[in-house]
Write a structure and sequence with these properties.
By secondary structure, the chain is of the alpha/beta class. The protein has helices at 60-79, 82-98, 100-111, 115-135, 172-185, 200-209, 225-234, 247-258, 282-292, 314-325, 347-362, 394-397, 413-420, 436-445, 478-484, and strands spanning 7-9, 26-28, 31-33, 40-44, 51-56, 145-148, 151-159, 162-166, 189-193, 218-220, 240-244, 263-267, 273-276, 306-310, 329-331, 366-369, 384-387, 404-410, 425-426, 428-432, 450-453, 468-469, 472-473, 486-494. α1 packs across α7 and α9 crosses α10. The protein is globular and about 75 Å long.
């Protein structure tokens, strides 16, 4: 199918009125404050390429002021009991839920994502706060006990202090929530720098949670990665830096963190293999991949983007997948509830993804559907399935981060596992089979932080999310995130006297 056959819909009315935008300032020590340098960055609507708002261009001095505020607020916040912190997190969740529609519309305008995706992000953000509010009241660790004779050991979980957080543009509010909720629950204070492309919902969150949190407990500094993000990563008074972003930014943050030996928590990219065996329920797999491969226009670190299918069913599976992908409605978020795919987030990312598609074609891959940009304004790319992909082609190794799924074949189980693991990433993977032995064996041998069996991209607040290898280290969600944002202290009492 040529790319021009994809239905594209256009919005009639703006989704957000000017009065609903958040302030174009940093949020530091409980108040919105202008950037010290006086600079601004444009926030662009990905559907039109037009500037819709501006955000303060943070400087190193702005970050320093925020870290100081967070440091000053830290002793008071950590003294609160888990119950007290939990109650505040529940109230934050209540406020987000009460303004869910506004958050979803702002997120949709800023990122271009469909309203259904934006609403899901907001629901998951609310659930993250509720989960962490509950989990912090039920800690799990070794019991106080005389592990050495005559000595009573207490294992304590302490906050780290000030945590620096840097978030990406693909799920701005949700990725912020994944960090803010466990960091605050564990008794830390924080300074967050959202992506310069998509700062709106994080600033709205600051506005909304104002007066719920004591001043300085939660701070936002907007600005670019190499300036504001880098200062946060290198700041000597920041105890830990947590980044969700690309591998390159992860490396930069880890390097900047080295001098002060601060802890580093990295949720980086992915290139999730989807291993489909001949005995799999192929129609069910194709339906699941329609969502898992293209949710948020494939701008999803766990996206089911790399299908490895047994050669005996490869042709049939590609047909089923193309049939699914052919029914997408692509459009602007304001165009209506039927829109399922939006544009890519920025001109630069659009050029990156279309560049991948051009090189894939030059290397011999064929677009069974889609394959390039859509006509008209904005950063729209047609949902694409690439077949006849040569072994080792760039499009099967590198994270494209767009609505593009590649289909390769394998002959046997060993080859499937070897090829699935032959990328630098290790965030997520899935196995599709009706064979119980194989579902366990292959899941165990896949080198990924999350492996689904007969599904893909299903998440829950109770279970950890994070990568192996080039996808970084550290865990979001679940009690593992609470542990990551805490430090463990052993206090041993001599009880023989
Ligand atoms: P990005 O790395 O370009 O930007 C992420 C953040 O890092 C931004 O706030 C940016 O300003 C900041 N940054 C950039 N350079 C920096 C530096 N030198 N020091 C400090 N901060 C710096 O990533 P992106 O394009 O916004 O997001 C897409 C990437 O994020 C993809 O690779 C995707 O896989 C990854 N991601 C991973 C997860 C996960 O859970 N593993 C979730 C979402 C996104």
């Amino acid at each position: 199918m040529p790319t021009s056959d994809v239905r594209r819909t256009t919005a009639a009315e703006p989704l957000v009125s000017p009065a609903e935008f958040p302030p174009d300032r940093h949020f530091v020590d409980g108040a919105f404050r202008p950037a010290s340098g006086g600079g601004f960055l444009d926030v662009v609507d990905p559907c039109s390429g037009k500037t819709i708002a501006q955000t303060a261009e943070g400087t190193a001095e702005d970050v320093d002021a925020a870290v100081q505020a967070a440091g000053a607020a830290a002793p008071g916040w950590r003294r609160r009991t888990p119950k007290q912190r939990s109650e505040i997190l529940h109230r934050i969740a209540d406020r987000i839920a009460a303004r869910a529609d506004l958050f979803a519309r702002l997120e949709a305008v800023d990122t271009g994502k469909p309203m259904a995706v934006a609403r899901d992000d907001v629901e998951q953000a609310v659930d993250t706060f509720r989960f962490m509010a509950g989990a912090v009241r039920a800690p799990v660790s070794a019991a106080a006990e005389q592990y050495a004779e005559g000595h009573l050991s207490l294992i304590q979980r302490e906050p780290l202090g000030v945590v620096g957080v840097v978030t990406p543009w693909n799920y701005p509010l949700l990725m912020a929530a994944w960090k803010i909720a466990p960091i605050l629950a564990a008794g830390n204070t924080l300074v967050l720098k959202p992506s310069e492309l998509t700062p709106l919902t994080t600033l709205k969150f600051a506005e909304l949670t104002d007066h719920l949190l004591p001043p300085g407990v939660f701070n936002v500094v907007t600005g670019t990665g190499p300036v504001a993000g880098a200062r946060l990563a290198g700041h000597p008074d920041v105890a830990m830096i947590a980044l969700t972003g690309s591998v390159g930014s992860g490396r930069a943050v880890a390097r900047a963190a080295a001098d002060s030996l601060k802890r580093v928590h990295l949720e980086l990219g992915g290139k999730a293999p989807v291993v489909v065996f001949a005995d799999a329920d192929l129609p069910a797999a194709a339906v699941a991949l329609r969502t898992a491969g293209y949710w948020n226009s494939g701008q999803e670190c766990g996206a089911a983007c790399r299908v490895l299918v047994h050669e005996s069913v490869a042709g049939r599976f590609a047909e089923l997948l193309v049939e699914q992908v052919g029914s997408f409605v692509v459009g602007e978020p304001g165009a209506g509830e039927e829109v399922e795919l939006g544009p890519l987030v920025s001109q630069a990312h659009f050029e990156r993804v279309t560049g991948f598609l051009e090189r894939a074609r030059a290397q011999g891959a064929r677009a069974a559907i889609g394959g390039g940009a859509l006509d008209g304004p904005g950063y729209f790319v047609a949902p694409t399935v690439l077949v006849d992909v040569p072994d080792g082609a760039e499009c099967t190794r590198e994270e494209i981060f767009g609505p593009v799924v590649t289909v390769e074949t394998f002959r046997d189980e060993q080859e499937a596992v070897d090829r699935a693991n032959a990328v630098s990433y290790g965030l997520a993977a899935s196995v599709w089979t009706e064979d119980a032995r194989r579902s366990h064996d292959v899941a165990a041998r896949l080198d990924a932080g999350t492996v689904w069996v007969n599904d893909h991209l299903v998440l829950a607040s109770e279970v950890p999310w994070g990568g192996f290898n080039g996808s970084g280290y550290g865990r979001d969600l679940s009690v593992y995130a609470l542990d990551d944002f805490s430090r463990t202290k052993h206090v041993m009492h001599n009880v023989t006297r």
